[in-house]
């Protein structure tokens, strides 16, 4: 591959076509079904599909066939198949992205908005450009870049779903429906992840699971005078605090329950150390810490492992407590909190949910009435061991596009489709990458796409697809048919 020609081609295509298309795409409020129950009637999802379909059909990609697949009662899916250069080679690359969006969120700058595309310097602001509107455009641009140079590639399949932000609950049905047409991909490329900086290619190696729900402590049938009852009636807040202390050390923040830990693979520890070296203090100071606040550990690689491979508890909601302005001298009858417990990637979510329930409900202090509604119990994802050919291809791609070596790191969130794709394509190699870097703020206000990174990621994907073909010809890839099942994902959204 002529890297300079590839870079020039991709950059020009982004400037001439992709950025203008993304500007139009951002204007469409095609919220995921979890956030727009009337999405069918509103028609925004169809508008987004039509925009991408129209652009894709105009691309001079050899051997391309496109279909918008619509299963009854489900969000649509864009299915693109591109014939391989060697018709005798049945190997394939699957490229994944999504076109649905998170809701508006408050807090946008005065000159910005979720459905208002704004270009400032090298950033395109607006909802969905980086998460994940660019994926279809970047996938086809990468393949076009190869064909422009006459470089061979294996058969490519592009799947763009419309339900990812709701947990991808429709995706496994489509993958099963299209199993024969998908074929046997040996490489899955997902363009829907983060990057630690904008200076090199980042690949996601793992995602945490999640167990969470509502914990309620009741001590009285109604509120009573605190002067009369305190010292006699145990405070529901104190009982709640005792229960939480069973789960978490309130001094250190370390989860106390050993069943919620796993052995961290040595490779992931080494990758965490490398990521820490590259990022430095940006690991923690990317967050809006108040003055004099400090992170939970002084060693940077421990912070990386904390957010990727260790359980961690957050309280994300509270009920039963009046605001300060309305708080009287009343001993309240109940206190409730919403728990969000992040889990190591390889820990089974159902097991964690059972451990959590037993821990909180057994032997309540003072005989208080304790209720726990488990809302979520999701298993995370850990990428399979990377083949020698792929690690070399990714590093070559990063050097070509960014001038630096690639970096590997887990993500702290829970993205159901990754685990589902891992189940659907067992044995396939995974390249999970994306453009969601520092301050890009996916799901939040002022979300932006860093355009130069979009170009470079596209170029990197082109290089990996080219090297995949060579590896396939050498017999170094493993073709994998779609595995049945995987429908247990996606009941609570992308989180």
Structural notes for this entry:
The chain has 495 residues and is of the alpha+beta class. It folds into three domains: 3-207 and 380-473, 3-Layer(aba) Sandwich (Aminopeptidase), CATH 3.40.630.10; 209-262 and 309-378, Alpha-Beta Plaits (2-Layer Sandwich); 263-285 and 298-303, no CATH class. It has helices spanning 3-26, 39-42, 44-57, 129-148, 171-177, 179-182, 226-229, 236-247, 266-279, 282-285, 300-308, 349-361, 388-402, 416-424, 451-473; strands at 64-69, 77-82, 91-98, 118-120, 123-125, 155-161, 184-191, 202-207, 209-218, 224-225, 312-319, 330-331, 334-343, 369-378, 381-382, 407-411, 429-433, 448-450. It has a six-stranded mixed beta sheet, with helices on one face. The protein has a four-stranded antiparallel beta sheet with strand order 11-13-9-14.
According to CATH, the homologous superfamily of the largest domain is Zn peptidases
Low-confidence stretches: none
End-to-end Cα distance? 38 Å
Question: Averaged pLDDT, please?
Answer: 95
CATH-defined topology of the largest domain: Aminopeptidase
| Major β-sheet strand ordering | 1-2-6-3-7-17
Strand content: 15-25%
Radius of gyration: 24 Å
Largest sheet: 6 strands, mixed
Q: Looking at the structure, what is the overall shape?
A: globular
């Amino acid at each position: 591959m002529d890297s300079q020609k590839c870079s020039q081609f991709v950059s020009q295509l982004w400037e001439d076509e992709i950025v203008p298309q993304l500007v139009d795409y951002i204007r469409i409020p095609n919220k995921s079904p979890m956030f727009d129950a009337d999405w069918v009637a509103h028609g925004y999802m169809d508008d987004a599909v039509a925009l991408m379909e129209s652009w894709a059909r105009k691309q001079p990609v050899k051997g391309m066939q496109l279909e918008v697949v619509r299963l009854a009662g489900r969000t649509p899916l864009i299915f693109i198949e591109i014939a391989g250069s060697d018709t005798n080679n049945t190997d394939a690359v699957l490229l994944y992205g999504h076109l649905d969006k998170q809701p508006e969120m408050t807090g946008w700058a005065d000159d910005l908005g979720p459905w208002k595309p704004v270009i400032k310097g090298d950033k395109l602001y607006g909802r969905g450009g980086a998460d994940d509107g660019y994926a279809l455009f970047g996938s086809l641009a990468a393949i076009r870049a190869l064909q422009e140079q006459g470089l061979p590639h294996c058969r490519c399949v592009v799947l763009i779903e419309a339900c990812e932000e709701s947990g991808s609950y429709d995706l496994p049905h489509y993958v099963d429906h299209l199993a024969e047409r998908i074929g046997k991909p040996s490489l899955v490329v997902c363009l829907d992840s983060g990057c630690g900086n904008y200076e090199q290619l980042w690949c996601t190696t793992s995602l945490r699971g999640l167990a969470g729900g509502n914990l309620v402590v009741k001590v009285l049938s109604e509120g009573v005078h605190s002067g009369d009852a305190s010292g006699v009636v145990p405070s529901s807040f104190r009982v709640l605090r005792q229960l939480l202390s069973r789960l978490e050390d309130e001094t250190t923040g370390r989860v106390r329950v050993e069943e919620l830990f796993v052995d961290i693979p040595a490779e992931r520890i080494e990758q965490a150390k490398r990521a820490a070296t590259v990022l430095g203090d940006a690991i923690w100071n990317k967050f809006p810490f108040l003055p004099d606040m400090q992170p939970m550990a002084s060693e940077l690689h421990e912070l990386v492992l904390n957010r990727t491979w260790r359980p961690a508890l957050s309280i994300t909601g509270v009920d039963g407590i009046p605001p300060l302005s309305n708080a009287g001298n009343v001993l309240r009858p109940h206190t409730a909190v919403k728990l969000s417990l992040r889990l190591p990637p390889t820990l089974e979510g159902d097991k964690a949910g059972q451990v959590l329930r037993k821990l909180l409900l057994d032997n309540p202090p003072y005989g208080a009435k304790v209720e726990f509604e488990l809302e979520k119990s999701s298993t995370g994802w850990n990428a399979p061991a990377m083949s020698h050919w792929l690690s070399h291809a990714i590093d070559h791609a990063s050097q070509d596009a960014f001038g630096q070596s690639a970096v590997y790191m887990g993500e702290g969130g829970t993205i159901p489709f990754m685990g589902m794709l891992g189940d659907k394509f067992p044995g396939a190699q995974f390249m999970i990458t994306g453009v969601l870097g520092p301050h890009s703020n996916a799901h939040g206000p002022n979300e932006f796409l860093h355009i130069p990174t979009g170009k470079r990621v596209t170029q990197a994907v082109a290089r990996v697809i080219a090297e995949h073909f060579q590896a396939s010809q050498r017999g170094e890839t493993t073709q994998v048919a779609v595995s049945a099942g995987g429908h247990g994902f996606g009941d609570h959204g992308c989180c």
